[in-house]
Design a protein that fits this description.
The chain has helices at 10-28, 34-59, 62-86, 94-118, 120-143, 145-172. With 188 residues, the protein is mainly alpha-helical. Helix 1 runs parallel beside helix 3 (62-86) and helix 2 (34-59) packs antiparallel against helix 3.
């Protein structure tokens, strides 16, 4: 067995998640069209995260494996929904999309608990992700557009937090230590 250091797949997964989440919120706030989000969702948020998750599996990191594969699949499914709408394959209602989002809220609850044991940055990432999903659930299941707007602002913070964690890992390899803080549920 080699002692050669391997790359951390989380950096690609976090970059894909953060970038795609940020672009979707720009779309949700009316600042960007669906085209840039669609293709980023397929390839960076979807495929790259899926690959990162599968690489995390080979490192024995169940959390990274589960989270990256889950959200990689989320982005690919969302892109598929948009393609289906665009090509007239189906026409889901806002409620249909709400239930799609709600389905991803449940694993996010579990991941949030785990993330809150890891670091303060991971805690912030997943708590804002959970709040974002709940806001989107409410917005799509009859609570009104205001919830989607609140979720978009919250999810911008979530996306920037993912990119911060990615930066902490990448820059850490060069001796530049970014603070991550103590997990919100970590033992004292």
């Amino acid at each position: 067995m080699s002692d050669q250091k391997l790359g951390n797949p989380a950096v690609v997964g976090l970059a894909g998640f953060g970038t795609t989440t940020l672009l979707l919120q720009f779309h949700n706030l009316g600042l960007a069209g669906t085209g840039v989000v669609l293709w980023t969702a397929l390839f960076f948020g979807g495929l790259a995260q899926l690959i990162a998750g599968l690489k995390e599996m080979s490192t024995g990191n169940n959390f990274g494996f589960a989270a990256f594969v889950t959200y990689g699949a989320f982005w690919m499914a969302l892109a598929g929904i948009w393609l289906g709408i665009n090509y007239g394959i189906f026409d889901p209602s806002t409620t249909d999309v709400g239930y799609f989002l709600l389905a991803f809220t449940f694993p996010t609850i579990i991941y949030t608990i785990a993330a809150c044991k890891a670091s303060g940055a991971h805690s912030l990432l997943f708590v804002t992700l959970l709040i974002g999903f709940i806001g989107l659930d409410l917005g799509h299941l009859g609570g009104g557009q205001i919830w989607n707007t609140i979720a978009a602002v919250d999810l911008i913070l979530c996306a920037l937090t993912a990119l911060y964690i990615m930066a902490a890992i990448v820059l850490g390899d060069f001796g530049m230590k970014l603070p991550m803080g103590k997990g919100w549920l970590a033992k004292k």
